[in-house]
């Protein structure tokens, strides 16, 4: 199975140009026999939209751009990010999994970062679910950027049987050290390794690059195998098209050796969680 | 405080290139004083855009700082960038002959704004974006002239402290005599930044880093060995100069107001 990660810089607020870029990458991916092509968070729109959010929101089912994209996914699966107007006036930071001409699933970002340099909850409605879904390539779950830094999100995908966890990201670089990378890149890699290893799933992280209003997205997209081994990584800061062959049988191999999934007790966790959450509300 | 200069050079070069592209510019223009910050900016711009796309304006007031003019010329020659020397004394002297003053700060600010005015004029003539040269230390302390040396199109060095720019200068091989110069705003002969601020850049940057980057509380910073008066002074300068870092305040009257709740990205592509 072949995976492609598009580490690129979308044009901010320009759906048409970004659609063309997506179609070009899909065409390229088909030539390279890629089975699963992943774009970063908000790949159709750019990230720092602010008041543009409402001007650029779409409803995937009847949107003409989406029809074009879906039509191109006969031979491969594509995962991309966009602003979704789920119902009138409610905008979500969403991702879609397209395959065989259909939208197999949509994930709406749950954890909207609203602190420091981030202001997402001001512009977006909050998603309310983490739900893995079956695909021809295996059970898959999607997360968007900050979702992934809350490990409960990955836990739910794990309990739901995900074999592939796909993270679409628009993670800005921040913090300098003596190393040749942003300090913030480290936390994504740390999480990638830990989550792939302890969910015994493939972890596919696609980040973007480019500047928006002086904020630089750090790149460094990666794929970990189900035993926490780094299979491939894109460079930091540069545009890059990562193509990586993976071996899906590694999921079974990992779960034989490391039976975290078999031994998981979600019902105990749920009970304990209910007690904790109930207590909180008192 | 130590930075990886290879990485930072890459970030700033990409920033300069991308921003110019987005706004449809090919050239950058900057005021080159012969000091550390503008020299570093010229080096970075030259690498990012190619020397022929960088225009350095050397804008002395008469013959006050001959050595700085020579150093600026040397940077131009080293990089092979375009340049022009314009003496600002006729314009400034005409003004002060009508409205005389002995106040050095008034004179210095007027000179800084005269330079700004020429930079904006040449920016339009040359279709070149103005590259600012204010560093993070100056921005936080408000140690600059509003609408003078602080005015620019983009500011590539604005998130680096003075001492970090010094590291970058060494990496970029900026001539040693420029790197070792005593920092001065050039407001009057003999004036030095550190003399005027009463603290060294080394002390200031360490305190700023604690306050701003690490968000540590004042009492903890003092307890860890910094002088109370120094920390207080830095804090006071930061607070006093917020107006220099913001657009002018607009009273909110309508339902949607510029700079309050009319929020569009700078880099909006149409």
The CATH C-level name of chain A is Alpha Beta
Which term fits the overall shape of chain B?
globular
Largest two-chain interface? A-B, 25 and 21 residues
The overall pLDDT average of chain B reads 95
Report what the structure shows.
Chain A is of the alpha/beta class. Chain A starts with a strand and ends with a helix. In chain A, the strands form 3 sheets. Chain A has a 6-stranded mixed sheet. Chain A is globular, with a radius of gyration of 18 Å. Chain A has a single domain (2-281), classed as Nitrilase/N-carbamoyl-D-aminoacid amidohydrolase (4-Layer Sandwich). Chain A has helices at 15-31, 53-56, 64-71, 120-123, 146-149, 151-159, 185-199, 249-257, 260-263, 266-281; strands spanning 2-7, 36-38, 77-87, 90-99, 102-108, 140-144, 164-168, 202-206, 211-212, 215-216, 222-224, 230-233, 240-245. With 270 residues, chain B is α/β, with parallel strands linked by helices. Chain B has 2 domains: 5-177, 3-Layer(aba) Sandwich (Rossmann fold); 192-246, no CATH class. Helix content of chain B is 50%, strand content 6%. Chain B is built from 12 helices and 4 strands. The radius of gyration of chain B is 19 Å and the shape is globular. Chain B starts with a helix and ends in a 30-residue tail after the last helix. The model of chain B has no long low-confidence stretch (mean pLDDT 95). Classes of the chains: A alpha/beta (282), B alpha/beta (270). The A-B interface holds A 11-14, 17, 46, 48-52, 173, 176-181, 210-214, 216, 237 and B 2-4, 6-8, 10-11, 14-15, 18-19, 262-270.
Keyword list:
heterodimer, A: 282 residues, alpha/beta, Nitrilase/N-carbamoyl-D-aminoacid amidohydrolase, six-stranded mixed beta sheet, five-stranded mixed beta sheet, 10 helices, 13 strands, globular, B: 270 residues, Rossmann fold, four-stranded parallel beta sheet, 4 strands, 50% helix, 6% strand
């Amino acid at each position: 199975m072949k995976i492609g990660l598009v580490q690129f810089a979308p044009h901010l607020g320009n759906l048409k140009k970004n659609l063309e870029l997506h179609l070009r990458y899909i065409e390229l991916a088909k030539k390279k026999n890629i089975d699963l092509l992943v774009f970063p968070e908000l790949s159709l729109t750019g990230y720092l939209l602010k008041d543009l959010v409402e001007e650029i929101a779409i409803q995937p089912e009847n949107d003409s751009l989406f029809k074009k994209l879906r039509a191109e996914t006969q031979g491969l699966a594509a995962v991309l990010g966009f602003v979704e107007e789920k119902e009138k006036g409610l905008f979500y930071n969403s991702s879609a999994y397209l395959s065989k001409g259909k939208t197999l699933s949509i994930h709406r970002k749950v954890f909207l970062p609203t602190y420091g340099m981030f202001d997402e909850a001001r512009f977006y409605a909050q998603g309310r679910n983490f739900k893995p879904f079956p695909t021809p390539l295996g059970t898959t779950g999607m997360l968007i950027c900050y979702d992934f830094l809350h490990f409960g999100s990955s836990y739910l995908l794990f309990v739901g049987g995900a074999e592939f966890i796909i993270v679409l990201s628009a993670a800005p670089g921040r913090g300098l050290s003596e190393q040749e990378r942003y300090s913030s890149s480290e936390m994504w890699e740390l999480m990638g390794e830990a989550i792939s290893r302890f969910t015994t799933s493939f972890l596919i992280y696609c980040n973007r690059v480019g500047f928006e209003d002086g904020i630089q997205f750090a790149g460094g997209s990666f794929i970990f195998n189900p035993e926490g081994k780094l299979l491939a990584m894109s460079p930091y800061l540069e545009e890059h098209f990562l193509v990586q062959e993976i071996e899906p049988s590694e999921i079974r191999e990992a779960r034989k050796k490391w039976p975290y999934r078999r031994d998981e007790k979600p019902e105990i966790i749920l009970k304990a969680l209910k007690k904790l959450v109930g207590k909180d509300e008192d | 405080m130590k930075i990886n200069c290879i990485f930072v050079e890459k970030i700033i070069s990409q920033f300069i290139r991308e921003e110019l592209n987005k706004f449809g510019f090919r050239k950058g223009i900057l005021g080159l004083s012969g000091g550390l910050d503008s020299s570093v900016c010229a080096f970075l711009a030259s690498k990012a855009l190619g020397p022929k796309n960088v225009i350095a304006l050397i804008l002395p007031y008469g013959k006050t700082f001959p050595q700085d003019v020579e150093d600026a010329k040397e940077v131009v020659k080293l990089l092979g960038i375009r340049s022009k020397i314009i003496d600002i004394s006729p314009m400034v002297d005409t003004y002060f002959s009508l409205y005389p003053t002995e106040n050095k700060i008034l004179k210095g600010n007027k000179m800084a704004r005269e330079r700004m005015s020429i930079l904006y004029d040449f920016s339009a003539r040359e279709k070149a974006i103005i590259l600012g040269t204010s560093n993070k230390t100056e921005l936080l302390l408000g140690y600059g002239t509003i609408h003078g040396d602080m005015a620019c199109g983009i500011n590539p060095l604005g998130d680096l402290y003075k001492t970090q720019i010094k590291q970058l200068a060494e990496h970029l091989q900026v001539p040693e005599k420029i790197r070792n110069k005593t920092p001065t705003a050039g407001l009057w002969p003999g004036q030095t930044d550190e003399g005027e601020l009463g603290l060294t850049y080394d002390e200031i940057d360490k305190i700023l880093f604690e306050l701003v980057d690490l968000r540590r509380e004042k009492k903890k910073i003092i307890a860890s060995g910094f002088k109370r008066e120094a920390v207080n002074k830095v804090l006071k300068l930061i607070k006093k100069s917020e107006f220099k870092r913001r657009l002018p305040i607009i009273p909110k009257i309508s339902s949607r107001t510029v700079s309050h709740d009319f929020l569009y990205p700078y880099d909006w592509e149409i």
